[in-house]
Design goal:
Structural class: alpha+beta
Radius of gyration: 19 Å
Number of domains: 2
Number of helices: 6
Mean pLDDT: 96
Number of strands: 15
CATH topology of the largest domain: D-amino Acid Aminotransferase, Chain A, domain 2
CATH superfamily of the largest domain: D-amino Acid Aminotransferase, subunit A, domain 2
CATH architecture of the largest domain: Alpha-Beta Barrel
Largest sheet: 9 strands, mixed
CATH class of the largest domain: Alpha Beta
């Protein structure tokens, strides 16, 4: 079951809640954040709302009302049917607009929804996507609702038995997954692509960089295939070992295990780090 809040109140998940002309629907003109809810508390909410504001500014949208977003999230969380782990999604769009790329001076649309979080498991198989991420595009670094590339790449990976697709960029450097960041271990050193690669500044990525000895480094396209260990990070995965790359097994070693334990301990001690 999904709990939904739209423009001021809770609504039935099966009922229309926004205009059919909303620019977020017609042209992907919006931004969003996904948070993990633990014991009815959204994790790292301050960081997520900061990134929502940065993404909105990058899209040229009005600054979101932070207190309104917090209040809407609180209302949705309070309505959840259980205390289990949930995924909380905040979506903020340009509001109703023309059937094209131009915008009207409409009020933005805010929606918040929550549902039980997926069970990711202890490991993930990944496939290297055949399409590059454009590290010079206008949406780089923004978490926007224009997710078509990710939908196509993830479906492609799933057809090949993988749980995630990983992109390189136009310079053949390792970049990111469709909804995750990537870390690799080379000669005992924990590394992740820099933001200049075109990857999103993931909240979990940032915390792993702060809470471990991980460093940013430009990595070649075949870095995953040659890694000693590797893992994915995201707001609902936390730290998830990569166990297979393009059908080739990859061991889960001490660096990955230590990073996962460090994240679990630190995030458990502070739900808004």
């Amino acid at each position: 079951m999904t709990t939904v809040w739209a423009n001021g109140s809770l609504v039935n998940e099966g009922m229309p809640a926004i205009s059919a002309l909303d620019h977020g629907l017609t042209v992907g003109d919006g931004v969003f954040e996904t948070m993990k809810v633990v014991a009815r508390v959204p994790f790292a909410m301050t960081r997520h709302l900061d990134r929502l504001a940065r993404s909105a500014a990058g899209m040229g949208l009005p600054k979101p009302d932070r207190e309104q977003v917090r209040a809407a999230c609180a209302e949705v969380v309070a309505a959840l049917g259980s205390d289990g782990i949930h995924r909380l999604r905040v979506t903020y769009t340009a509001g109703p607009g023309p059937l094209g790329s131009d915008r009207d001076d409409a009020e933005p649309t805010l929606t918040v929804a929550a549902s039980p979080a997926p069970a990711w498991g202890s490991g993930a198989s990944v496939a290297m996507a055949p399409w590059p991420r454009n590290e010079r595009g206008p949406l780089v670094g923004l978490k926007t609702t224009s997710y078509g590339d990710n939908v196509v790449a993830l479906a492609w990976a799933r057809r090949r038995g993988a749980g995630e697709a990983v992109f390189v960029n136009t310079q053949d450097a390792l970049c990111e997954g469709t909804g995750s960041n990537v870390f690799v271990v080379q000669d005992g050193e924990l590394l992740t692509p820099p933001l200049a690669s075109g990857c999103l500044a993931g909240i979990t990525r940032d915390l792993v960089l702060e809470w471990t000895d991980a460093k940013e480094a430009e990595l070649p396209a075949d870095a995953l295939l040659g890694a000693d260990e590797a893992f994915l990070t995201s707001s609902t995965r936390d730290v998830q070992a990569i166990t297979e790359v393009d059908g080739r097994p990859l061991a889960t070693g001490a660096v990955t295990t230590d990073a996962a334990q460090a994240f679990a301990i630190r995030s458990g001690n502070d739900l808004d780090p």
